[in-house]
Design a protein that fits this description.
Length: 347
Amino acid sequence: MSKIFVDACLGKETPYTPVWMMRQAGRYLPEYMEVRAAAGNFLNLCHDPEKAAEVTIQPLDIVGVDAAILFSDILVIPDEMGMDLSFVKGEGPKFSDPLVSQEDVDRLIGGEEAASKLTYVYETIELLRKQLDERGDEKALIGFTGAPWTLATYMIEGQGTKTYNICKKMMYSNPELLHNILAKVTEVVKLYMEKQIQAGVDVVQIFDSWAAAIEPGKYDEFSWKYMVEIAEYLKEKYPHIPVIMFPKGIPAFLDKVYGNFDVFGVDWSTPMALAKEKLGDKYVLQGNMEPCRLYSKEATTECIKVIQETMGGKRHIFNLGHGILPDVPVENAKHFVSECQRISAKK
């Protein structure tokens, strides 16, 4: 059965432009908060395939999006590589043992051994594949990973950061060590993505949430080339599985985007017309409404119309230019989805 979202990723004609939202399974939904409370905490929820599958499917039924994105967290990868991960209420994720030396990198579990420990993720996907197939609808399932650079920032800083000064100190004063970390993470991510595909995802997305922390002249060396390595590994083995790249905050880098993948995610700071001019012939574009427009139905509709006019309903997937925020009214999220589908419908 043809899935409209997969068709759109591959640049095929679709009856309307499909839509989904980053962080669509999350805190803005009361139903999600109930399941999370029952799980006890965020990591427990990630580790419980039945509950993770339940919150993955919620936005399909509540909001009406055209694809489900696997509920998990990017930091399960360093967690299973042997780092000590905890989520501190009000502060976010923390690693008690950040990487500072080659000895620290050497103690990490790598390759197949680390990827094989993420069984709860693959079990969640298998459950979802079964549930989605039984429903008989045409909703796609998206798997995902953080990009090696984004993962490395947490592994080196030990937590989220606004300045990235520890990572960037390493980038300029000990680039070899940073490359060793990135290479080790890349090997795990390749196998992790491959196992997600084998478990049943239809599409994969690589999130480089902290791309904007790197100066444009260094971006390829420390992030993009590793993302491309992952994408090309997957496309060679699974050419029918679309790969989405989402580097956030790099309008200055659009001229230098290359690689074998299918969809380029455009963040909200990059004008869609600019992305179309630079990349629209090479890649399907995804995005890019400013997430805060969701606070106003009028501002949402206005933006959808502009994006639709820019893209003309071709080689495009509607999404936000980053994740949905926790206090957005559910009604407004539904409005965004239904308006995307209505405004882009082929007459």
